[in-house]
Amino acid sequence: MNIYEDQKMVTLYSLVGLGVVGWGTSPHIRCASLLLVPKMLGKEGRLFVLGYALAAIYEGPAANLRNNLNEVISSLGCTVQLQINNTRKAWRVSVGPLRAVLKDLLASKDSLKAETQNITKSFEDLDDQVNSETGYTLENSMGLEGTARGGEMYRAVPSRYHLSTQKMYELKTKLRCSCEGRQYM
């Protein structure tokens, strides 16, 4: 029973007191209580004791086991929820700087385009110089002769391979220079 210990003691003393008074005053109570002992040793008595034992087990260890299982389930649910929340926060913290950079880039899209165009315009002169054919033509590289220092004649070796822009610029610069001589051929 779910009652306080003090109330249990009062109830026990009251029942013992009633039993003492009944035994002292009534032969029927004495006879009924004496017949109760053989009844408890019979089939019905064993079933009563078994029911009482099962109820005690259900209220004791089984209830404790049930409560512990409920606490384990609550604990696991809480742990999983904390892991989800911590992972979400860690993701936001780790991706936050990248998001800020991308937002800044999107916000400064127009200025970035303008700067890119300025850079392109800055290199237009260099591109024109690299792509220029001044002082060098395909005919010069294929065998037409030119004079350099000392009256010697030089010509560029025709290229069978595709040259990079840097190599082409270097070759054109060497061919344009009429004062350096043979060391560039």
Task: Explain this structure.
The chain is an all-alpha fold. It folds into two domains: 5-93, no CATH class; 123-184, no CATH class. It has helices at 5-25, 27-41, 43-107, 109-122, 124-131, 138-141, 165-176; strands spanning 146-147, 153-154. β1 and β2 form a beta hairpin. α2 (27-41) packs across α3 (43-107). The chain is rod-shaped and about 145 Å long.
Shape: rod-shaped
**Main sheet properties:** 2 strands, antiparallel
Low-confidence stretches: 142-156
Gyration radius over CA: 53 Å
Question: How many helical elements?
Answer: 7
Strand order of the largest sheet: 1-2
Question: What is the average per-residue confidence, as pLDDT, rounded to a whole number?
Answer: 78
List the helices and strands and how they pair.
Blueprint: H1 5-25, H2 27-41, H3 43-107, H4 109-122, H5 124-131, H6 138-141, E1 146-147, E2 153-154, H7 165-176
Antiparallel strand pairs: 1-2
Helix pairs in contact: 2-3
Write a concise keyword list for the protein shown above.
two-stranded antiparallel sheet; 2 domains; 2 strands; single chain; about 75% helix; about 180 residues; mainly alpha
